[in-house]
Structure prediction request, 168 residues.
Amino acid sequence: MTTLIYPGSFDPMTTGHLDIAKRASKLCDKLIVAVLANAAKRPFFTIEERVEMARIALDDIENIEVESFDGLLADFYRQRKANAVIRGLRSESDFRFEAEIAAANKMLLSTFETCLMPCRTDLAFTSSSIVREVGSYGGDISGMVPESILKFVADKLKDARLTDLQLE
Ligand code: PNS
Prediction:
């Protein structure tokens, strides 16, 4: 049984994340979408909201499970007996960051494997931080987030003050 983990903050899940999760789910028996609870980045959406949004967006894919995790990804990887972690790649700057965390995870756990999956070119500029920024001004975020969670995300962002948002 092949188990892949797709980790992230998913603050909120975007159409880019959805595309990677769907494609990755075809490469394994089980895909665990692992939502990082601990928040060095101070997420805008709560961990419960981020998990629930991912569950709703991925509901129709049988071999996907959504869980939250805390602490080191390498520990979660060992506990879940994963075969690899999958991460989406949008750009060269993503590559640099991903190469660094892949190397750190390999040092923590020698069996840790990281697979980088290029995103769809039309989604190369979609990110959770852009969604948060556009949504906070009441801008149109359809197409940037899965249809099934669009209203929830748009409503919550519209109500937020800009200072509540972490805009990288
Ligand atoms: O969606 P993100 O914020 O780019 O996801 C980053 C994530 C969750 C993959 C990364 O921050 C992570 O794995 N954090 C858990 C802590 C950890 O294991 N750090 C060591 C690797 S540097």
User: Anything to note?
Assistant: Helices lie at 15-25, 47-57, 73-79, 92-108, 128-136, 150-159.
